[in-house]
Design goal:
Blueprint (H helix, E strand, L loop, with lengths): L9 E4 L4 E4 L7 E6 L10 H19 L3 E6 L15 H9 L3 H18 L15 H13 L3 E4 L2 E4 L1 H7 L10 H7 L15 E6 L15 E3 L1 H13 L3 E7 L3 H16 L4 E7 L2 E3 L2 E2 L10 H6 L11 H9 L7 E3 L1 H20 L13 H13 L4 H19 L7 H18 L7 H24 L3 H13 L2 E6 L2 E6 L1
Parallel strand pairs: 3-4, 3-9, 9-10, 11-13
Antiparallel strand pairs: 1-2, 5-6, 6-7, 7-8, 11-12, 14-15
Helix pairs in contact: 2-3, 4-7, 7-8, 10-11, 11-13, 12-13, 15-16
This protein binds adenosine monophosphate and zinc ion.
Adenosine monophosphate binds next to α1 and β9.
C-alpha cells in the first residue's frame, strides 16, 4: 500500500544541478541506462558501490510498481590508457598470457559472481560493446554525414568545435569550451585530430592490435563513448528517462555521449543524469589502475590487512546504504564494525517481530512512520534517512519486546510488512546470519577449548580426549602448539 507513489519522487539531476520532480516519458514506465564495467580486472569495492547505488534505485522504482527497462552494458572492447599504444584488455591478455576474449570472459564472470553475492538484481538487458559494432559504425556514418565528424588516416574523430557552433559542449560537466581549449596542450603535429578536445569515434588499429573490426575507414575499433550511445538508443530509444554512472564518468564520457546523441538524434539522450559518488580508501578514490583498492572477496574472507575480520555482503551493503549515494564514502575497518553492529541489531529486531505480545492499542504512529519511509526514498533515494526511520521502529519493537510499550495486532502486521519490504526488497539486504552465527560457533568452540584445558590440568584425560575427538567428528580440528590451542573448521 505505498501511499506516496512515483508522482512525488524527486531526483537530483546533474544536468541542472537541482532536485527535480521525476516525470517519466511514459507514465508508469522507466527507461534507465547505467554504464557498466570495463572487464579487464576484478571489480573492486568502489565499482560495486556505484552498481549497488543503482540497484537500490532500481529496487525502489520496482517497489512502487513502476515498470523499468534497465540496461547496463559490458565494456568488452579494449580502450587505450592515455598515450599508450596498448589497450587495457590486450595489456591484461599479454600479462596473463591468455587471449583477449579470455580476459573478457574471466572478468565478466567475476563481475556477475560478485554482483550475485551482493544480491544485485540483474538488469533487463546487458548488452556488450563487441555485440554492437555495426550500430556504432552506423552512428559514425551519420555524424560524418552531418559534418560533425571527420576521417583522418583511417581514424574518425568527433569535431567538438564544429558541434559547439550549434550546441553546448560542456553542458553536463559545466566546462567551458574556451577554457578547455585554453587549458590543453597544443597538438604536436603528430596527432590526426584537428583539436585536442576532439575525441575518437573510430581508431585505426596498429598491426599488433588484436581486437579489431572492419569498417569503411579501417580495420580498427570504436571509441569508448560511442558504445553507450549505440546501446542506449537501440534498447531505450533516442530519449529515455535516467542515465546513470559513477561521478568520474561525467567528463569526458557522459559529456561525449550527450554530444554524440545530439549529433545523431538532435536530443540529449536522457532527461535525468544521475551520478553516484566515489568510495574512497584512506581518503583517495578507490581505483584499479592506482592499486588503491579492496576486492569484495577480500572483505568477505577478511583477507586484507586493512580488516580485523571478515564481513558479510549484507553488512557491506548496509554500510553503503548508510551514506547517501551522492556523498563520498570512506571505507575503514571501524566503520564496517559499526555497520555490522547496526545490521545485527536490525536483524534481531526483525526476528523479534515473531515473538511479540499484542494488546489493544499501539503507542506509536505507524502510519506516519510508513509515510516517512516513503518520504525518505522519494527525496532522491535518501537511504540514510530511511535507515534512521528504520531504527526508530527497531527502538519501538525492542520496547514492546521488553513489555515497556504496546502494539495492536493490525499495526504489528503493517510494521512487519513494511519493514520486510524496505529492508529486503528496497535496501537489498539479506537475512544473512552466517557471519553472526559463525561468530557464535567460534565463541562456543573457545568455551570447549577452555573446558578441555581445565580437564587436562585436572588430569581428566578421558574428558579432554572426548572433547577433542567429538569436535573432530563434528569437523572441528584442534591444533595444540606452544602451549596454546587454536582450531580449524573443515
Ligand atoms: P570502470 O570499470 O572503471 O568503467 O568502472 C565501472 C563503474 O564504477 C563506473 O560507473 C565508475 O564510475 C565506477 N567507479 C569507479 N571507481 C569508483 C569508486 N572508487 N567509487 C565508486 N564508483 C566507482
Ligand atoms: Zn557509458
Amino acid at each position: 500500500m505505498p501511499s506516496n507513489k512515483s508522482n512525488s519522487i524527486k531526483i537530483y539531476n546533474s544536468l541542472t544541478g537541482k532536485k527535480e520532480l521525476f516525470k517519466t516519458i511514459t507514465k508508469g514506465y522507466v527507461g534507465m541506462y547505467v554504464c557498466g564495467p570495463t572487464v579487464y580486472s576484478n571489480v573492486h569495492l568502489g565499482n560495486l558501490r556505484t552498481f549497488i547505488s543503482f540497484d537500490t534505485i532500481y529496487r525502489y522504482l520496482n517497489h512502487i510498481g513502476m515498470k523499468i527497462r534497465y540496461i547496463r552494458n559490458i565494456t568488452d572492447v579494449g580502450h587505450m590508457v592515455n598515450d599508450s599504444t596498448e589497450d587495457r584488455i590486450s595489456e591484461k591478455a599479454r600479462i596473463e598470457k591468455i587471449a583477449p576474449m579470455e580476459v573478457v570472459q574471466k572478468y565478466t564472470n567475476d563481475f556477475h559472481d560478485t554482483l550475485k553475492k551482493f544480491n544485485l538484481i540483474p538488469p533487463s538487458i546487458e548488452p556488450t560493446a563487441q555485440g554492437h559494432i555495426i550500430e556504432q559504425i552506423e552512428l559514425i556514418k551519420t555524424m560524418i554525414g552531418k559534418k560533425l565528424a571527420y576521417e583522418k588516416n583511417g581514424s574518425v574523430y568527433f569535431d567538438v568545435i564544429e558541434y559547439n557552433n550549434s550546441n553546448e559542449y560542456g553542458i553536463l560537466s559545466k566546462r567551458n569550451i574556451e577554457d578547455l581549449i585554453h587549458n590543453t596542450r597544443k597538438l604536436d603535429g603528430q596527432s590526426d585530430k584537428k583539436n585536442p578536445q576532439d575525441f575518437a569515434l573510430w581508431k585505426k588499429a596498429e598491426s599488433q592490435h588484436i581486437m579489431k573490426w572492419h569498417s569503411p575507414w579501417s580495420l580498427g575499433f570504436p571509441g569508448w563513448h560511442l558504445e553507450c550511445t549505440a546501446m542506449s538508443s537501440k534498447y531505450l530509444g533516442e530519449k529515455f528517462d535516467i542515465h546513470g554512472g559513477g561521478m568520474d564518468l561525467k567528463f569526458p564520457h557522459h559529456e561525449c555521449e550527450i554530444a554524440q546523441a545530439n549529433a545523431c538524434f538532435n536530443t540529449n539522450p536522457a532527461n535525468y543524469w544521475v551520478h553516484a559518488n566515489m568510495l574512497t580508501l584512506n581518503g583517495s578514490k578507490m581505483s584499479k589502475s592506482t592499486g588503491n583498492s579492496v576486492l569484495p572477496k577480500e572483505i568477505i574472507s577478511g583477507d586484507n590487512k586493512l580488516l580485523s575480520k571478515a564481513f558479510s555482503p549484507s553488512v557491506i551493503r548496509f554500510f553503503m546504504m548508510q551514506a547517501h549515494y551522492r556523498s563520498i564514502l570512506d571505507l575503514s575497518n571501524d566503520a564496517l564494525v559499526a555497520s555490522e553492529k547496526g545490521y545485527n541489531k536490525l536483524m534481531d529486531a526483525i526476528d523479534n517481530l515473531d515473538n511479540i505480545k499484542v494488546s489493544n492499542k499501539t503507542e506509536f504512529n505507524v502510519k506516519n512512520w510508513i509515510s516517512n519511509c516513503y518520504k525518505a526514498m522519494n527525496d532522491d533515494f535518501n537511504t540514510p534517512i530511511l535507515i534512521a526511520q528504520i531504527f526508530d521502529i527497531v527502538k519501538f519493537i525492542n520496547l514492546v519486546k521488553a513489555e515497556k510499550a504496546k502494539i495492536k495486532a493490525s499495526d504489528l502486521k503493517d510494521i512487519k510488512t513494511k519493514l520486510n519490504e524496505f529492508v529486503f526488497d528496497v535496501l537489498g539486504l539479506e537475512k544473512n546470519k552466517s557471519n553472526t552465527s559463525n561468530d557464535k560457533i567460534k565463541s562456543v568452540i573457545e568455551i570447549l577449548i577452555e573446558l578441555r584445558d581445565k580437564a587436562r590440568n585436572d588430569k581428566n584425560f578421558k574428558l579432554s580426549d572426548k572433547i577433542r575427538d567429538d569436535l573432530k567428528n563434528a569437523g572441528i580440528i584442534l591444533n595444540d602448539s606452544n602451549g596454546k590451542t587454536d582450531f580449524t573448521i573443515n
